[in-house]
Design a protein that fits this description.
Elements (H helix, E strand, L loop, with lengths): L23 H24 L1 H7 L4 H10 L17 H14 L1 H17 L4 H8 L7 E14 L2 E11 L7 E10 L2 E2 L1 E2 L2 E2 L1 E7 L4 E3 L13 E11 L3 E2 L17 H27 L16 H34 L6 H27 L10 H13 L9 H8 L12
Helix pairs in contact: 1-4, 4-5, 4-7, 5-7, 7-8, 7-9, 7-10, 8-9, 9-10, 9-11
């Protein structure tokens, strides 16, 4: 079932390449190469799930392999060693990894999304991160809990950021700060002004706080800076900064980030269905049942229903991502209305995938409650993923307002 989820990427969507001279045939071969490489990696990831969970991190050799495959440069231009894929094209890659292991999928999603962040950096730091086609892994915490005091030549930065997934394997770490001047927050019409600090991983201290019920292997520890002088070149404006890369990445980034989270949820649900199918195929028979689980028409009906629901979540995500990418190519992607739509879809996808995983767990019977069962881990993982801000159902409000004709506002700050 997991292998069945690894399909050729959709390359039919009309796209304006970053480089007008780029040909589509090399692009398609890169997508196929990545899919084939990840397909080969899936059995190992499945077999190492317990190691990943007990270690509370993705082992370095796994992220090293993903780096060598080019996963963390998929969205970058070829001028910086990137593959110049589109956001719709990377969704299946994320789903494949999350279906194999939820934490690997989560950390990979963060690393892929961080490529988008870096386009807002000053050129000197962007070039430093991506020099010589380097596939550096970045970890980021979006919580605005840092303090960046304006000083001569830059900022004095301090903070303790939570949820820095993959920080132990990252080469660069990013944290969100509120800008202060003369001891007071700098304000705009939308609220406090923020900047994101970007420094090599060795400049940060990692506090191993990640003791969580789900996505346990994601290594989402706290990261700390204390009174660090940071030059302007290492700060960027995520929400209002301009892109160094011409083309679709000049568009607002937040709608794309919502889609990346949806891909992880789809992967966790696909993995749960694969686990359940494996259990049913092992000859298991429930207590007092007259047939094996696999031959039960009740089980077959429920499994068919869950498959339809998973197809629906995938279809919504792909249609939305394709639409947003086309809008980005045309320069019409809206950072308010389209972000609200992205969050609306992400909330629905996470809710639907949570139901899929929960039903898989129930159909698995008493075996599913055991620590050795992958289904109990999937259940914990999908609930952890659903706690992220991008999966919250409160953002239905913004989409509902837009549909009713209210003026679009930023769904993160305008409610």
């Amino acid at each position: 079932m997991i292998n069945a989820s690894i399909k050729a990427a959709n390359v039919h969507t009309p796209r304006k390449p970053f480089d007008e001279a780029r040909e589509q045939e090399p692009l398609a071969s890169e997508v196929m190469r990545l899919h084939a490489a990840l397909r080969d990696l899936v059995p190992e990831l499945v077999s190492r799930a317990e190691e990943i969970e007990k270690g509370r991190r993705v082992p370095a050799d796994i992220t090293d392999r993903l780096q060598r495959l080019g996963l963390f440069r998929t969205l970058l231009p070829r001028s910086h060693g990137g593959l110049e894929l589109s956001v719709p094209e990377v969704l299946q890659l994320i789903e494949t990894l999350a279906a194999a292991d939820s934490s690997v999928g989560w950390v990979s999603m963060i690393g892929i999304g961080a490529q988008l962040f870096t386009t807002r950096l000053p050129r000197v730091t962007f070039d430093r991160i991506h020099a010589d086609g380097r596939a550096n892994q970045l970890a980021a915490s979006g919580m605005p809990v840092g303090r960046a005091e304006v000083v001569d030549g830059g900022y004095q930065v301090s903070g303790r950021w939570p949820f820095a997934s993959g920080c132990q394997n990252a080469q660069w770490i990013v944290g969100h700060c509120i800008v202060h001047k003369d001891g007071e927050p700098v304000m705009s019409e939308r609220g406090p002004v923020t900047r994101w600090v970007t420094l090599p991983a060795e400049r940060w201290r990692i506090e191993e706080t990640w003791q969580a019920s789900g996505l346990t292997g994601s290594g989402s520890h706290h990261v700390i800076l204390k009174d660090v002088k940071v030059p302007e070149a290492n700060m960027f404006d995520m929400f209002n900064g301009s892109s160094l890369i011409p083309g679709p990445l000049e568009s607002p980034l937040m709608p794309f980030l919502a889609s990346l989270h949806g891909a992880v949820a789809n992967g966790i649900a696909a993995g749960a269905m694969a686990d359940l199918a494996g259990m049913a195929g092992s000859g298991r028979r429930q207590a007092f049942a007259t047939t094996d689980l696999r031959d039960s028409q009740v089980f077959q009906q429920e499994f068919g229903r869950l498959g339809a629901e998973l197809r629906a979540t995938r279809a919504l995500l792909q249609v939305q991502a394709d639409n947003h990418w086309r809008r980005a190519l045309a320069g019409t992607l809206n950072g308010e209305a389209d972000f609200a739509e992205g969050l609306q879809a992400s909330a629905w996808i996470h809710a639907a995938c949570t139901n899929i995983v929960s039903d898989c767990y129930t159909l698995g019977g008493t075996n599913a409650i055991m620590n050795a069962s992958a289904l109990q881990r999937r259940l914990r993982d999908i609930h952890a993923a659903r706690q992220h801000a991008f999966a919250q159902e409160r953002f239905y409000i913004s989409a509902g307002k837009n549909a009713l004709g209210f003026p679009p506002v930023d769904p993160m700050f305008g409610q």
